[in-house]
Amino acid sequence: LPEEASVVIVGGGIAGCSLAYQLCALGVEGVVLLEQNQVGGGTTWHAAGAVGRMRTTATLARLNDRSAALYARMEAESGLATGWMKAGSLTIARQPERMIQLRRAGSMAGRFGVDVDEVGPDEIRARLPMAQLEDVIGGVWLADDGIVDPPALAQAIAEAARRLGALVVEGARVTELMENAGRVTGVRTPDAAIRAQTVVLCCGMWTRQFAATIGFDVPLQPVEHHYVLSRSVGEDITTLPVTRDPDASIYFRGKGDALLLGAFQRVSKPWLVDRVPDDFSFRLLEPDWEHFAVPLDEGLRRLPALQELGIERFVNGPESFTPDGNPLVGEMPEMPGLYICAAFNSSGLAYAGGVAEALAQWIVGKEPPFDLWPVDVRRFSSRQSDLDYLRNRSVEVLGTHMRMAYPNVEFEMGRNLRGTPLYDELAARGASFGEKHGLERPNWFARPGQRPVIEYSFGRQNWFDNTRAEHIAARTTAAVFDQSGFAKYRVSGPDAVSVLQRACANEVDVNLGGVVYTAMLTARGTFASDLTVMRTGATEYLVVSGTAQAVADRGWLRRFVNSATNVRIEDVTDEYAVLGIMGPNSREILQSLTDTDLSNEAFPFATTDIVTLGHTQVRAIRLTYVGELGWELHIPRDEAVSLYRAVLGTGEPYGLVNGGHYAINSLRLEKGYRAWGADITMSDTPLEAGLGFAVAWDKPTPFYGRDALLEQRDGSGPRKRMVSLVLDDPEPVLWGGELVYRDGVRAGHTTSGAYGYTLGASVALAWLDVSDAPLTSATVEAAAYEVDVAGERAPAKASLASPFDPQRSRVLC
Ligand SMILES: Cc1cc2nc3c(=O)[nH]c(=O)nc-3n(C[C@H](O)[C@H](O)[C@H](O)COP(=O)(O)OP(=O)(O)OC[C@H]3O[C@@H](n4cnc5c(N)ncnc54)[C@H](O)[C@@H]3O)c2cc1C
Q: Which of 220, 315, 341, 597 is the least buried, fewest Cβ under 10 Å from its Cβ?
């Protein structure tokens, strides 16, 4: 082994091999891959070999599509067989709701370059002559989906990487990670030490225990995953399409002369092993016929030939799962130089090639090359690595591959990991909670006698009228929202101003009490985050961002700190609860609790001050995410309940009601307020998003990302624009993830949507491609729009400006 490498990759499964190849393809020299056993002998060895590409977000679709592109050329590049074949894939539906889901997913996949054709029962029968399909009402066909021989593919990619200069070593177990002053410096094997500035853990289900050796908890849990292989059908049936039958939680394909029948059971079994054995290579767990009984029955019904053939082999392979079913990719925020690329949730072949390509660019460019948030390791809080939580949650995650992908669907297992200080109060008042970043947040409030449980559908769900009441209260009287999940940082010290000036695109060197909406940008000028920065002292700021952004923002801010910088960044998220009191009556309600003058003159919009409400001192911030007069109150955690009760008691005569996050979503979309992660991401710039007003181009300290943004402003201009859409028809419900047509041509997609109760129709934010001329208010409004609602086109109006109160008269009063 060499004494030094530029990048050490630990693990030679499909992920590690793909990464070695992609790094070398970018010209990186000195790439070393260490595999404790044999390349492709881990989970990759027993994968079923399907490379599917139907995903509903741009990021996931792109990653899967790039995998297929890589695998397709590996045989030629390596000279080794990979088993790659475009067998195509079918997903079949037994019920109308499933067709809605497939149409929704298919149209979005199409937007991101993956061809999806809707097919009827006759075409399905023609493609699956051996299947019994009486109950099938339709499906979708992806002609370009492929299959591979997984371990052969891993070996071929490893060979292709070797040809490009990588050193791939088998039988080399990494036993230790070396670090110095919080930075990774290399690895040790039993025989050697290799110095390296970059180490990537591609250790599959071993990643958790290995990262734990240096004190990191990685949120992944091995889960048993099952398929069976039939005895020979007497001919090669490899060309049979990979067929998914989600209503039965099964899939099947041809593997040589055998039928492969696999399952994504709704309830699955975490592998409760204390430590994954180091030598778990080319090995399986014991067959579990009992757990496979229901899928087997379904399979026997769907494929009657199986009854005659019988089963030759039961494959029970462990695979790692995360709390949300997406992989873990990216740099560990607490340890620069240490990256993770693992936990592929039974889609590792579909993902690895594309993920490795993106991660290689991330490693070389030192930041994600495009929006990778859905797979970014920083999207989880440290609490979500708790073993009990992971084991509980993992019972459900495998099944999500096939359960109905309803909008806003919540996990049922592994809940109540943590709540806000107001959890019990809100639960007693009928709150229906949803989980974000491991935190329980109120989504809506049930009426007395109504169960606070969501009844899912693609249309109006059972909370539609509850949210309407909360929304209308915020617009006409007042509503109180528990927004305690906000990520909160205190940034202080002599260099606080200069660090934030460099990190933030807007001017943050403002007067004491000033509140600034700003972005932190990547070098490409895209959103690393958006946040609110408040000046709370000469050298002190309070920085607030979205619930899920906590870990990512902390890591990003640290990029602007070095040993010579005198600044402290403290996470104070859990020290304060946050109540948003929003609506035209909010001033009167709060004024009755304080002597501080809350008039517009004394306490204008975008300012903050310490205020005593009753007996409690809070930081009051005149700000709104719902487009109404209102204050966000940061309350010491222990005093949150008493103040909440006081506000509620005082507010009731003024029409104050509890409101949940669904109401916030509907209110903010009417105002066109963007949400980071959903609407604006690391793939989008402020100019594209219409947020150029929050960029201080000429402040004394140039902000990070300015050069790229200037180039866009003064060069070719944005290639896409964010618009608000309002449907003409008051009936359909938009959720986000719908295709948009402009003048009859496919031209964009919605990023989030909700029913706008004030507007009386669904409202959404959407990206529109810029074709020939730049998009101005006039050209946007002149065109005709339609939104694809599960195959039906709903006419809509588009605008660059907010559809509700564009003059902000309700906010600045
Ligand atoms: C039954 C089953 C069917 C599946 N079917 C499909 C499918 O059809 N399509 C699909 O896309 N996905 C499928 N998957 C998922 C897919 O197999 C995995 O997601 C993928 O193989 C994971 O690859 P990996 O490289 O992350 O992990 P692995 O293949 O497990 O590789 C990790 C490697 O790291 C090595 N390692 C660990 N620790 C160390 C160390 N300290 N030092 C050196 N080396 C180390 C291990 O030996 C191992 O070789 C399936 C999974 C299962 C269980």
A: 597
